[in-house]
Design goal:
The structure is a single chain. The protein is of the alpha/beta class and 291 residues long. It has two domains: 15-44 and 142-284, Rossmann fold (3-Layer(aba) Sandwich), CATH 3.40.50.1100; 46-140, Rossmann fold (3-Layer(aba) Sandwich). Helices cover 37% and strands 16% of the residues. The chain has helices at 19-25, 46-59, 74-86, 105-111, 124-129, 147-159, 174-183, 199-209, 235-248, 257-266, 281-284, and strands at residues 15-17, 29-34, 64-69, 89-94, 115-118, 134-135, 165-170, 188-192, 220-222, 272-277. The strands form two sheets. A six-stranded mixed β-sheet has the order 1-2-10-7-8-9, sandwiched between helices. Strands 5-4-3-6 form a four-stranded parallel β-sheet. Strand 3, helix 3 and strand 4 form a beta-alpha-beta unit. Helix 1 (19-25) packs antiparallel against helix 9. Bound molecules: pyridoxal-5'-phosphate (PLP). The site of pyridoxal-5'-phosphate has 21 residues, from helix 3, strand 7 and helix 7.
Length: 291
């Protein structure tokens, strides 16, 4: 199915050298792909995927977007922002109960005018299907939207043709799948956040859905930084947040980019390394162990 993306962000995002962080990690060369600066609604990787999912929604005649996520979902926040930009309604189905204090991404969800439905422990997909509107899948990830990260991989090869490895946080899998679709499994290192029961199978299935032949066994997936789960904050992640801030003035988030940097620190690759800053800063202000 051919979908022309709706422009929602600012492209290409910058690729910046990070020499002080590189030295601290013992890397020859480290670059930061600033996908935290994608433009819309505080930025982040979900904008690239929403350009495709929103195009599908508009083509289907949608007047309201519905999506799902954790309470501090960056994807939910950016779906709310995209809906506002496109003049559509937005319903966010979030896991758990309403918190006592509205913080982080939830403040931005409300500012953008989204209605929030708290799903408790019910399956998010079922609650979403019962809403009135066009449902965008968990994390905005589908074989179509993963093409947003084929676009990013193309930008990267223009900016740094001889890149060796791109390090990225793995949540719902679309970002990694799109990068692998264009760069191949050996140039992408995904650090899992614990959002999926079987990340290798999910990324493999997405590649299959994109028509890309790749052996899931070849995917480089680091599962050592999940810790006690998606919302937990481990010592290596806390230390990675401090390191990035104090070497480069770069703020990472505790759920995704902090884990990705902890993964890079534990297993430093050779050659020119790109760290994908996928955004997520609002989540820091909503994290139970930090805020
Ligand atoms: C969602 C998210 C990711 C992971 O992207 P997926 O495509 O869901 O795997 C990484 N970083 C941040 C900040 C995110 O919000």
């Amino acid at each position: 199915m051919d979908v022309t993306p709706i422009p929602l962000g600012s492209w290409p995002t910058p690729l910046e050298p990070a020499p002080r962080l590189a030295a601290a990690l013992g890397l020859d060369e480290l670059w930061i792909k600033r996908d935290d600066l994608t433009g819309l609604g505080g930025g982040g990787n979900k904008v690239r995927k929403l350009q495709y999912t929103c195009a599908e929604a508009v083509r289907a005649g949608a007047t309201r977007l519905v999506t799902t996520g954790a309470a501090q979902s960056n994807h939910a926040r950016l779906t709310a922002a995209a809906a506002a930009r496109l003049g559509l309604g937005c319903t966010l189905v979030l896991r758990g109960e309403p918190p006592a204090t509205v913080r982080g991404n939830l403040i931005l969800d409300e500012l953008a005018g989204a209605s929030v439905v708290w799903a408790g422990t019910d399956p998010l997909d079922e609650v979403a299907a019962a809403q009135d509107g066009y449902v965008i899948p968990f994390g905005g990830t589908s074989p179509v939207s993963a093409r947003g990260y084929v676009d990013c991989a193309q930008e990267l090869l223009t900016q740094l043709p001889d890149l060796a490895t791109v390090v990225v946080a793995l949540g719902s899998g679309g970002t990694m799948a799109g990068l692998v679709a264009h760069l191949g499994p050996h140039r992408v290192y995904g650090v899992d956040t614990g959002a999926l029961p079987d990340p290798r199978a999910t990324v493999g299935a997405l590649l299959d859905g994109m028509g890309v032949k790749a052996d899931p066994a070849e995917l480089q997936i680091d599962e050592a930084h999940v810790g006690a789960g998606y919302a937990a904050l481990t010592d290596p992640v806390r230390s990675a947040l401090v390191l990035a801030a104090r070497t480069e003035g770069l703020f990472l988030d505790p759920t995704y980019t902090g884990r990705a940097l902890a993964g890079l620190r534990a297993t430093p690759p050779d050659g020119k390394v790109v760290f994908l800053h996928s955004g997520g800063l609002p989540g820091l202000f909503g994290h139970p162990a930090l805020g």
